[in-house]
Design a protein that fits this description.
Length: 213
Amino acid sequence: MAGSDQQHWNQRYLAGEFGFREVDPFVMEAHKNYLQPLLRENSSSGADTGLDLAGGAGHHAVWLAQQGWRMTLADWSEPALEIAREKAAADRLTLDIQQGAALDVVSRYAGSGHRLGFVLVSFFLDRAVLPWLAKILVPGGLLLYRTYTEDNERLGNPRGPRNPEHLLRSQELLEIYRDMKILHYNETVLQKGVAELIAQQTETDPKKMETDR
Ligand SMILES: C[S@@+](CC[C@H](N)C(=O)[O-])C[C@H]1O[C@@H](n2cnc3c(N)ncnc32)[C@H](O)[C@@H]1O
C-alpha cells in the first residue's frame, strides 16, 4: 500500500500536477513572528537548522534556506526532490535533501541525537510520525504543522485527501502536543477544514524527551 501511494505521488509530480509553488502565507507569517526571532536568539546546537518533512518539491525549504536557515528537505518522492535539487542549484543554495519515508527520517533524527531548530509539516499526515516531532527539536525549538481536518471532507472541498488516516480530528494536534507551549492554533471550517499549530519545545532535558511518550 505504501509503495502504491508513493508511486501515486511520483506520478503527480511527473505529470506536473504538483511542483514548485508559492510559499504559503502561513509559513511566511510563522517565520516573521516566531522563526526569525528564534534564529537570532536560540544558541543551542542545531538551533539554526530546520526540517521540511514531506516537503515535496521544496518551495518552503528553498524559501526558508534563503531566510538563513540550514534546511533539510525530506520527502519520499524522488521526482519531487529532483525539482528541489534543480531549484536549489539555480539559486546557488545549499539544501540537504533526504529521500525516504517520513517515519524513517524522523526516527533517524531521534536515534542520532541530532536536534533541529524547527520542523515544518505542511499538508501531510502520518499519525505514527506525530509523537516523534516534539522529540527531535532543540529546547525552545518550534513545530509548525498545517494540514486538512475531517471537516474538509464534510465540506466537500474537492482538494485534499479522503482517507481519514490522512485527516486530523478536531483539536487532535492540541492533544498530541499538550506538553509543548502552544503559540498559535487555528482550525478553519469555512470553505475547507484546515488545522494549523505552532508549538514550542519547552523541555530542556533530552533524556526526558526520549521517554515521555
Ligand atoms: C500534499 S503534498 C505537500 C507537499 C508540501 N509539504 C506542501 O505543503 O506543498 C504531500 C507530500 O507528502 C509526500 N509524502 C506522502 N506520504 C509520505 C511519506 N509517508 N513519507 C514521506 N513523504 C510522503 C508526498 O510525496 C508529497 O510530496
